[in-house]
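Structure ticket #2291
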Amino acid sequence: MSTFRNICKSKILAVLPLILLSGVFIRAQSNSWKTLTPLISTRAEVEQILGPPEKECDYQCEYRFEKWHISAIYTIGECEDGWSVGKNVLLELSVPPGAEDTKMFNDRKLDKRNLSFTSNDAFYGSWTDAQAGIQFSTSPYQELTGIRYIPKRSDNNLRCDGFPKFTPEGHHYPGWQFDLASNKYDEQDILERIYSRLGTFLGQTVESRNTHKGYILVYFDNKLSLKRYRSLVGKFEKYIFKDWKIQKGEIAIIEGGLRNIAEIELYILPNEWEPPAPNPTFPSPQFMRAKKKR
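Resolution: structure written out below.
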């Protein structure tokens, strides 16, 4: 991610709402499409409407409905995806824009006050209405390319213990991502790997400090104890804030919870954007409502 791209992102933020409010989008009414609703509809109910998938699939399936390609993701099992619903329940549904209700599509405009925006370095964007449970994907030319129906903010009462709140407005594209290889290296070697990868990120964060903020999202695994990982985090915090003399308000370090592999994601985001949201694979002590020690 270059500073130039970061600046371009800031500029595109100012332009996009004007384009989007010109009549391209529908106003999000609900996260249901043809009665199919995330966390409510079962796979059997989806396939009753869409028919069988185009090919054999487990939990990510493609369907041909009329002339449209529809994608569906289903839950793996109770709490295995972070949701207290059973297996084969619809988790998200992606449809092309032409598959929407044409009349509502043309007659309604999105209220940008309910939307949060993110994009990748190529300016493919995503507009999220977390309250309604709907996302709109856009091309670099601000064309609507897809609509995703996802769980609503009010569905967080179904989140399992050990998982953070579902915060889709905080799902951004990381500028850098690397694993810690904690099964191969000792603590000092892991720190050296981190330091060698932080230089460009820290330099760009300082350079764009007036308009952007840096985030370091750290995921742990079970190869080391939580105490050991937090010791590592404390040491590279010292490297950032003491050795680089970066102000704490310019960079935030966030514990993301447990994944298969310990890794770090680095973000430099415009100040207007939501912070990156943790997205762990497994129940994590950071998000246990009844705190458990490891």
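Closing remark: DSSP finds five helices and eleven strands in the chain.
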